Amino acid sequence: MSQLPKYMEIYTDIRDKINNNEYEINEKLPDGDTLADYYQCSKLTVKKALDILVKEGMVVRRRGSGTYVKGVSTNGGAIALGPSEGLSNIVGKENISSKIILFSIEKPSLEIAKKLEIDDEYIYRIIRTRHINNKPYSLEHTYMPLSIITGLEPKHLEGSIYNYIREELKLKTHSTHVWIRGDKANSEDTSLLKIPDNSFMMEIEKLAQLEDGRIFEYSITRHLHESFVFETVFVHN
């Protein structure tokens, strides 16, 4: 088996440390000399690894200051949410609370089965509301194949499902396809989020894949527009 290039080993290690919160949101990474010494390589090799993390939006370089783990946006207190990061990893689990509306194991509809690329197998169907600092933030409808996300229990929904997937199941998430649209609040939104009729909502439809290509999540999340910012990074080559 061919060995990964050194810069890819470094990239993978730092990425995993970010996902496991060994490097926390807004934390400054060690400087190039320190990382080069730690990984026993050149500063150029470290730079190649960090370039990938910058391209993926996991870290940001601040001129004259250093490289930092991406975190909360300062856009008027709104949350900058990237497509592949769990909410707990964006704002910190101590600021989030969840209310489970539904946790069910069932056969999917034809539409959901097609989205998840599965046939006649069971899924988790999850509905929960998320609150940040005790204020309504979002309403989530999530569908996950039972055969991939094994052992999921209601207790895991109180925190980050993504942390459960990465830390306990040891699965490597890879990519996320998102669709973003605006909409008026429906009766479910107003009832569960306690918002006025006809409030404006932002909706994210999401398909998420593992490193091996399997789809492990299809979800639709409805956000209050005033606390929603979608943030991504475009790198010009």
UniProtKB/TrEMBL annotation:
Top-rank taxon, per record: Bacteria
Annotated PROSITE patterns: HTH_GNTR
UniProt-listed InterPro entries: Bact_HTH_transcr_reg, Chorismate_lyase_/UTRA_dom_sf, Tscrpt_reg_HTH_GntR, UTRA, WH-like_DNA-bd_sf, WH_DNA-bd_sf
GO MF, one example: DNA-binding transcription factor activity
Record keywords, A-Z: DNA-binding, Repressor, Transcription, Transcription regulation
Listed Pfam families: GntR, UTRA
Annotated GO biological process: negative regulation of DNA-templated transcription
Annotated Gene3D superfamilies: Chorismate lyase-like, Winged helix-like DNA-binding domain superfamily/Winged helix DNA-binding domain
Descriptive protein name: GntR family transcriptional regulator
